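Slide 14.
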Amino acid sequence: MTGELRYVYAVVPPLAEPLLGELRGVAGTVPRTVEHAGLAAVVSDVAEADFAEEPLRAHLEDLAWLERTARAHQAVVDALTALTCPLPLRLATVYRDDDGVRRTLEEGRERFGAILRRLEGRVEWGVKVYARPAPAPAAASGASPASGREFLRRRRQQVTARENALTEAEELGRTLHAALSAEAEDTRVHPAQNPQLSQMPGQNLLNAAYLVPRERSDAFVSRVEQLGGHDPAVRVELTGPWAPYSFASADDPGHTGGPGRSEERPAAERYGQDGAPERHEEHARDGAVR
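Slide 15: predicted structure.
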């Protein structure tokens, strides 16, 4: 296989400014736009040998390749976010040629247009609340328990400390979510992160996304800092501003519940906290070329 395919990052309104010349996308490619039906798709020309159906399926099982691709995908979406409000597509969305991209823009014109109008001028902020692991109480003089009764007393202290930390974190999560929901136009509460996959310390009790007008972002960040940074038993993590991934589906009713203790999230949270790979959670498709 020696031909080229079209890797699509996002759908945007026609750009008033060109993409940055130094911007690079997946596999070191230079992104460009394909315009049709009053919309533009931002694409890269990628090698069929890597992105055709079978090699792509294999690559999606390679965590190192997937992380590099997710970070490159996100770099393009971040650059678009500085220019406009993009509608990001799923990781590894691939078409055979420009005509296939144009057909998708034609078929999705009304839906894409409605979403872009709804999200125009808005960004996504992510907030996570963790209960910090409770330190084990120090034993007197560093000595081993003198009796079984002393051992059980220490164990009760440890359990009580963990339960108190969890209760404090849950209360702060509820308070923070209510306050931030009042600041935002829309919210999504995602399942809690699995600590074995995310490798983040503590129990994740709130994992939420907030849709905020860009001009109100400073006030939103200040609200997070005001409410979230003062309890030693709780860690609050703020990420963003992102393109509004969590709000980009026209048929997703969303979920606006409060913090909880749900257990599992899919694989993309394994890919780190500092580069948007986790934005692509549940977004790696089945490797089909459209």
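Speaker note: Residues 122-134+169-280 form a domain with the Alpha-Beta Plaits fold (CATH 3.30.70).
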